[in-house]
Amino acid sequence: MSLKILFEDDYFLAAEKPAGLPSQPTVDKRRPDFFTQLKKQLREERSADFYLGLHHRLDRDTSGVMIFTKNKIANEPLAEMFKKHLIQKTYLCLTALKKCPDQWEVKNHLAEVRDPVLKKIKMKSVRSGGDKAHTLFRRLKTFKKGLLIEAKPLSGRMHQIRVHLAEAGLGIFGDDIYPSPKTPTAPRLMLHALRLEFTHPFSNEPIMIESPLPADLKEMEKTLS
Questions:
Q1: Nearest to 174 by CA among 193, 192, 188
Q2: Please, what sign has the CA dihedral across residues 221, 90, 61, 15?
Q3: pLDDT band at 216, cuts 50/70/90?
Q4: Which residues contact 185 (CB under 8 A, 6 or more apart)?
Q5: CB 12 within 8 A of CB 70
Q6: Is 136 strand, coil or helix?
Q7: Is the pTM of this model over 0.90?
Q8: Fold classified for 5-224
Q9: Alpha-carbon distance 139 to 147, whole Å?
Q10: Which residues pair with 27 in a beta bridge?
Q11: Other CB atoms closer than 10 Å to residue 32's CB: what's the count?
Q12: Domain boundaries, the chain
């Protein structure tokens, strides 16, 4: 499988992460991951010492755009942009059908908890402690059996969009950790990293990188219609 390059210049490279691949190597060294596969592909196509720097991640079952550095000079500027939330991320997701505003925002605090049933770490909103989490939401389409929602996280907490929607009764189809609609059945988590927007730290030009809606999400839209 050839991984799709979405953007490239002298400093950065953005590629399309498929659903089902972890973003980075896991404890199980035999398990394929996106970062390693992309680096392997680029080293085979370009040169054996091609540099690729990892700076953020997407959940295993989330598809969409990820950006990497191509040289060490770019590492600090990209890390700084992520740290200061100077990169605007836009996601699309298919959620449960429920009455909701055209636009709304969620500002709260999230903390890690261990789910005794799933035996996994997950996030939940808390009244004290935790870390600030802020997401802007917009309802784009209403289907017969669900909604197409745009999400713009303004902070970078684990599972932030998933938790904010699930706790509002708008669970994402295919979510196996947070409350979500079970019918119709989704092939995977219906969450897609659509777009990254930022001011280029070296040229000062506005950059917008998009990853088109994947086939399985389009097919699920038809099912919900």
A1: 188
A2: positive
A3: very high
A4: none
A5: yes
A6: strand
A7: yes
A8: Pseudouridine synthase (3.30.2350)
A9: 7
A10: none
A11: 14
A12: 5-224
Tens of pLDDT, residue by residue over 15-59, are 999 999 999 887 777 889 999 999 999 999 999 999 999 999 999
Nearest-angstrom CA–CA distance, 50 and 2: 17
d(CA 22, CA 27): 11
Are the C-beta atoms of residues 67 and 86 closer than 8 Å to each other?
no
Is 59 known to be catalytic?
yes
Among residues 189, 141, 199, 142, which one has the least CA distance to residue 166?
Answer: 189
Task: Find out whether the peptide bond into 184 is cis, omega within 30 degrees of 0.
Answer: yes
* Residue bearing tokens 């839209």: 221
Half-sphere exposure of 179 (CA within 13 A, CB side): 9
Q: How confident is the model at residue 177 (pLDDT cuts 50, 70, 90)?
A: very high
First to last CA, the chain: 31
Catalytic residue among 9, 33, 49, 59: 59
> What's the one-letter identity of residue 166?
A
Residue 165's closest CA among 188, 192, 135? 135
Given a contact cutoff of 8 angstroms between Cβ atoms, the answer to whether 15 and 23 are in contact is: no
Give the pair of three-digit tokens for residue 189: 């988590």
Residue found by looking up tokens 């990293």 in the block: 193
pLDDT of 1 higher than 80 = no
* Residues 6+ positions from 154 with CB-CB distance below 8 Å: 85, 134, 135, 136
Rounded-to-integer distance, Cα 223 and Cα 143, Å: 9
